Amino acid sequence: MRIEVDLKRCNNHGQCMFSAPEVFSLDDQGLLAFRSESTDRYVSPALDESQREQLQEASDMCPTLAITLVEAAP
Amino acid sequence: MHPNEYDLTSEDAIAHPEPVFEEMRKRCPVSYVEAMDTYMLARYDDVKAAMRDPLTFSSDRPFFGAGDSELEEIQASGYPQVPTLTMTDPPIHTRYRKLVNQAFSPKAVRALEPSMRRIVHDLIDGFVERGSVEFVSEFASLVPGYIIADALGLARGEQDRFMGWADDFVDSIQGREILSRERMLEIQHHVIDFQKFFANEIEKREQAPGDDLISALLAARVGGERPLDRPEILDLIRVFLTAGNETTASWISGTMRLLLSHRSQFEEVLADRNLIPAMLEESVRLVSPARWTRRTIVGRPVEMSGTVIPVGATVRPLWTSANRDEAYFPESATFDIHRDTSAHMAFGHGVHFCLGVNLARAEARIAFEVLFERLRDIRSAIPLDDVRTLPFVGVNRLSALPLRFAAT
Predict the structure, then answer these.
(1) A74 pLDDT tier (thresholds 50, 70, 90)
(2) Which residues of B295-313 are buried (b: 16+ CB within 10 A; e: fewer)?
(3) What domains does chain B contain, in order, with CATH numbers?
(4) Fewer CB within 10 Å, N- or C-terminus of chain A?
(5) Does B105 touch chain A (CB under 8 A)?
(6) What does pTM read for this prediction?
(7) Nearest-CA distance B382 → chain A (Å)
(8) Taking Cα atoms as reference points, which of A23, B223, B232, B341 lies closest to residue A14?
(9) Which residue of A has its CA nearest to B91?
């Protein structure tokens, strides 16, 4: 399981870090930390199954619907 | 223009601050307004930067009445006021936000849609045969109020009291610096009435839990450990009541006014109901139901657009102004349902981003879907120039919008 974040949709509200603080964080500028790694789309490495529930919640809560859970390898 | 000359306290400026904000954006984007002892942030970029730095632009502020012995004495007869969602910073804010986020998730809101649709139909049943309606008081204000009452498991007959309390809280938040002494005393007494009413409701749920939001708050565990105490639950209810009532009411009524004054776009939406969500995002940008929020500078002075704001200063990031910043919204005062509205901040920005955004969007969408299904030939019953915005500080509320229509 991985997460994909559409960084063009993401508006840095940071609601995802309330749900899944081990995966999502904001940097010193208040921007989603993944932005240092890519500009359009961030795809995570494979994540542990134990995190599924909180990642699903992060995806559900995102005000811009920018987070998707994907099962297949990228 | 010297910053202190901006007048935001006259009745006209309170009802229609847009021209003052436009002047600020052009000439003095960070203006100190002496009458409110507040720095106003008028530009989009400054508002957004402030929202991205919630620890410097702190939401941690005293409750209304704190430090005022007469008001404190009144408050002493109620429950202690505990800040939860709106007047806190991370990490305290984070704990509460995480706790309530799920109750307002898209999934939770989808489950409420059938009952929302029923409420809207019931309201329209009440006036449809008359062929006329006072849209603000008989419809727009009642849609969010009834939905919140249902969600909290309360009788709808209490609606007038809820709206009254919501008004009290809005006044105490948005314009506490310029309230009359009489009004301040009245608000503080009403806070106690509110607390006693809901303490009683909480007790009822403790005895017999239901599937309502108050019962859910009683069952919730902060950090997976302790239950919320009564003052915390009272503050959360205060937030739901205040943030969820008048904002959505103003959005729905303001949207109807915009449609009536933009006939061809109105016809376009009627012909293609799939345009309703885009139409609503554009109207919420222009209406900006909450005109501003409030923050306090903590830790270090901040320089914005060439002005240094000192530590301890009160700052008001102006949503209304950011949403009309020409740098992001060309021809910003023009209602255009086809424009790209994705950058608007009518629901705020960052960690305090509107908790109820999904609920509000669903309420407004369903309201217009059902209105268009049930009513046709909707017209204003008075000249649109006579539709007034009320002089309520920091909010954008219409006095009345009488309509005529035919039933479908």
Answers:
(1) low
(2) bbbbeeebebeebebeeeb
(3) 3-407 (1.10.630.10)
(4) C
(5) yes
(6) 0.92
(7) 38
(8) A23
(9) A18
Hey, are the CB atoms on A61 and B101 less than 8 Å from each other? yes
Indicate the residue of B101, B107, B347 with minimum beta-carbon distance to A18: B101
| Whole-angstrom distance, CA of residue B392 vs CA of residue B362 | 26
Residue B265 CB coordination number (10 Å): 18
Residue written as tokens 């839990």?
Answer: B209
Distance from CA of A60 to the nearest CA of B (A): 6
Name which of B58, B11, B65 is nearest B300 in CA terms: B58
- Going by pLDDT thresholds of 50, 70 and 90, the confidence category of residue B167 is confident
Check residue B1 and give its pLDDT: 42
CA distance B2 to A67: 46
Whether B93 and B60 have beta carbons less than 8 Å apart is answered as: no
Residues in chain B: 408
Query: Rounded to an integer, what distance in angstroms lies between the CA atom of residue B124 and that of residue B127?
Result: 6
Contact B380, B387 (CB under 8 A): yes
ipTM: 0.80
Contact between residue B32 and residue B4 where contact means Cβ atoms under 8 Å apart: yes
Which uninterrupted H or E stretch holds B323?
A: none
Chain B residue with minimum CA distance to A65: B106
| Digit-coded pLDDT (tens) for B179-227 | 899 999 999 999 999 999 999 999 999 999 998 999 999 998 877 789 9
Compute the nearest-CA separation of A30 from chain B (Å): 5
| CB proximity A33 to B under 8 Å | no
Map chain A to HEC letters. CEEEEECCCCCCCCHHHHHCCCCCCECCCCCEHHHHCCCCEEECCCCCHHHHHHHHHHHHHCCCCCEEEECCCC
DSSP of B70-94, one letter per residue? HHHHHHTTSPPP---SSS--TTHHH
Q: Is B102 on the interface with A (CB under 8 A)?
A: yes
Taken in order of first residue, the domains within chain A and their CATH numbers are 2-70 (3.30.70.20)
Token duo for residue B196: 């006693």
